[in-house]
Write a structure and sequence with these properties.
The protein is 36% helix and 19% strand. By secondary structure, it is of the alpha/beta class.
Length: 118
């Protein structure tokens, strides 16, 4: 069974969809994305938190939002919430954003360093 990865940013339009897309063909992980603002492409919900095995946040504000708003859901499940620390200055299809995310996810052990798919 695949592990579920959830990527969270502000509006779910650029950083988190780019990160989730890195796992599109993964044999090991299934990834989704969400945003915390009301105008988000996909709004973060309790159902998304429940679905996720591991939650990645782009900025400290997103991590605080997840840990505070979904305290009960996180606490009951002992889900990992990992801060990637990626600023909101990127567009979804920016190659530099993809490279930054690959480096951070490799550092966390979620992508292979040899470029192969997990």
């Amino acid at each position: 069974m695949k592990k579920h990865l959830l990527f969270v940013c502000t509006s779910g339009m650029d950083r988190s969809p780019c990160a989730a897309n890195l796992f599109k063909h993964s044999k090991k992980y299934e990834a989704k994305f969400a945003g915390i603002s009301l105008g988000s492409e996909v709004l973060l919900t309790k159902e998304a938190i429940a679905w996720a095995d591991i939650i990645f946040t782009m900025e400290p504000v997103h991590q605080m939002h997840v840990l505070e708003k979904f305290r009960k859901e996180i606490g009951e499940s002992s889900k990992r919430v990992i801060l990637l620390d990626v600023d909101n200055c990127w567009k979804r299809h920016d190659r530099a954003l993809e490279e930054l995310l690959v480096g951070k996810l490799q550092g966390e052990g979620f992508l292979r360093r040899d470029g192969g798919k997990e």
